[in-house]
Write a structure and sequence with these properties.
single chain; two-stranded antiparallel ribbon; alpha+beta; 10 strands; 2 domains
Length: about 250
């Protein structure tokens, strides 16, 4: 593992790593590492603003095609860099070589750096903040403990209380009209993981996050998302439903 570029004027990409994802359905059915799907490569670079960013290239393993997905920055990226810079002192890394990967489980609000043995079977995981309450961000988890907790987080998310409107009392951002799983993942990487987070985020920042996500999100309009999220955070499900009845794609129809 090579260090991040010390030169702030060096904008070349580095630390290439694979991105894996898992569905909550797989976790609830008892599947673990074998169901993780390789969906992208990520490359870290320092922008003109001297902040760290990642460029993500989607991978279609069926035909081995690659498509630019998005450029992003935020709390998860900063956490990744901080972890990368100090992981070389970890006892396991001093003794053996590891491949760095990223595991993303948006439905459980979990993103973790996944250290897989390069020439051995040992592996461990380090969740990045913000993360589901079952985990401690920055802590090193042995693989078995991590997968046990991830399965428990999936059960928590699936078993959240449902009110008489049929809405889950949980921070599932796809409950917001106009937000789907891909946008929820974008928001999560930007550090927006709860209704309260979203309620406090100005539409202008949301627009920047969507713009960085690539052309596929050009038609998404986040104008009403903070208002919707505020109602959800306060548990005002009836008012949220009435508001959403007037929306189409997150904007007034």
């Amino acid at each position: 593992m090579t260090n991040v570029h010390p030169d702030p004027n060096d904008h070349s990409p580095h630390i290439p790593h694979k991105v894996y994802t898992m569905s909550i359905e797989d976790l609830l059915s008892g599947k673990r590492v074998e169901s993780a799907q390789h969906i992208a490569w990520r490359y870290v670079f320092r922008g003109d603003d001297q902040e760290y960013h990642v460029a993500e290239i989607s991978v279609n393993e069926a035909d081995n095609s690659h498509t630019f997905h998005h450029v992003n920055h935020g709390r998860h990226i900063d956490g990744f860099i901080a972890l990368y810079e100090q992981i070389h002192a970890h006892e396991s890394v001093l003794e053996r070589d590891y491949e760095i990967n990223l595991l993303r489980v948006p439905a459980c609000y979990v993103m973790a750096v996944w250290f897989k043995g390069a020439d051995h079977k040992h592996e461990f995981m380090v969740p990045l903040a913000p993360v589901h309450k079952k985990f401690e961000a920055g802590r090193h988890y042995e693989a078995d403990e991590f997968w046990d907790l991830l399965e428990a987080a999936a059960r928590d998310m699936a078993g959240s209380a449902v009110d008489d409107m049929g809405l889950k009392s949980t921070d599932d951002l796809t409950r917001i009209e106009g937000i789907g799983p891909q946008i929820a993942a974008l928001l999560m990487e930007a550090g927006i993981a709860t209704f309260a987070d979203l309620a406090l985020t100005k539409p202008a920042r949301l627009e920047k996050i969507l713009s960085a996500g690539g052309g596929r999100f050009n038609f998404s309009n986040p104008t009403t998302w903070p208002k919707q999220a505020n109602l959800a955070a306060l548990g005002k499900w009836q008012e949220l439903q009435e508001l959403q009845d007037e929306l189409k794609g997150g904007v007034p129809s």
